[in-house]
Each structure stands twice: as structure tokens, then as C-alpha cells.
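Work Package 4 report. The design task specified in the project plan requires that, given a folded chain encoded as C-alpha cells, an amino acid be chosen for each position. We show below one input record used in the internal validation round.
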């Protein structure tokens, strides 16, 4: 009979979301995970199977805990500027890194990312009553602002010009 698990899996996944969202998949080693999560290497592998297994679990948690609330909030957006503010104020670091780093090389990550971005597009289209292609453009603009760190307060400049769209 094996020993009972000596770590909180939920807490470990939460910490992994922060690590992968801050440093990306390739920037986090198994040694980093072991030390930051406070788990033994064997426990990590037994629970998650691999670094990739933990990454996928963390990505799914991020989508549920950080992206889903944005979708819910977007349902109440009355104009494009509000939708843009909701997306650009969210913590979407792991989603952005997944889009850039892992989706091009990992089909499962690509599928998760594609579904999440499509959900954001749909939420914007439904809330604002705009065509899907315009909603996708708003999503792309918002994520681009997040990715670039809102240079020269681009989010404010763009929101001031979005009112005529809705």
C-alpha cells in the first residue's frame, strides 16, 4: 500500500499556473517545479505523469479560473470599449504564452487555446451584436495590447475610438 499524498494537488496546480504564466513552459524546469511546488519529483510524476501533464493541468486551470470569468463579464459588456477593458485588465499571461510558445508545437495545447480564443470571440460578438470577424479583431487587438504591455497607453487610445463600432 502506497503512502498518502503529502502535498495539496490543487495548490500545486495553482503555483504551476503562476510559474508557467511567468516564465513559459521552456523557462520552467522540473527542478523549478519540485522546489516551488514543494513536492518530490516522484510525486510530481506519479500525480501528473510529466512536466507536460502538469502544464496541461495548469493551462486548463488557468482557462477555468482566469479566462472563464472574463467570458462571464463580457456577457454584460455594453460597448466595445468595455469589452476591450475587460480583456486587457485580465490576467491572461499563461494563455498568451501558450499561444506563442506551446500551441505551434503541441496539438493538445493548440486545441485548448483555439477553443479559449473562439469563446472570447463569441462572447464579444454576442455581447456587442457584432459580426464574428469584428469580434475576432477586437480580441486580437486586446491580446496584442496585453502582449506588448500596453505601450503608450494604447488601450485607452483604442477605447476612445471604439464607441462608433457599437
Amino acid at each position: 500500500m502506497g503512502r498518502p499524498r503529502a502535498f495539496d494537488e490543487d495548490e500545486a496546480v495553482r503555483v504551476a499556473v503562476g510559474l508557467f504564466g511567468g516564465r513559459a513552459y521552456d523557462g520552467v524546469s522540473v527542478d523549478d517545479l519540485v522546489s516551488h511546488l514543494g513536492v518530490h519529483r516522484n510525486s510530481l510524476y506519479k500525480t501528473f505523469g510529466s512536466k507536460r501533464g502538469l502544464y496541461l493541468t495548469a493551462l486548463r486551470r488557468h482557462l477555468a479560473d482566469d479566462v472563464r470569468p472574463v467570458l462571464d463579464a463580457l456577457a454584460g459588456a455594453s460597448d466595445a470599449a468595455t469589452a476591450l477593458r475587460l480583456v486587457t485588465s485580465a490576467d491572461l499571461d499563461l494563455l498568451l504564452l501558450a499561444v506563442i510558445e506551446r500551441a505551434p508545437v503541441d496539438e493538445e495545447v493548440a486545441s485548448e487555446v483555439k477553443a479559449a480564443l473562439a469563446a472570447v470571440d463569441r462572447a464579444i460578438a454576442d455581447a456587442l451584436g457584432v459580426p464574428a470577424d469584428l469580434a475576432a479583431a477586437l480580441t486580437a487587438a486586446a491580446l496584442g495590447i496585453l502582449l506588448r504591455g500596453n505601450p503608450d497607453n494604447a488601450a485607452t487610445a483604442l477605447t476612445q475610438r471604439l464607441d462608433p463600432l457599437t
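The CA atoms of residues 24 and 141 lie 22 Å apart. Validation will be extended to a larger panel in the next phase.
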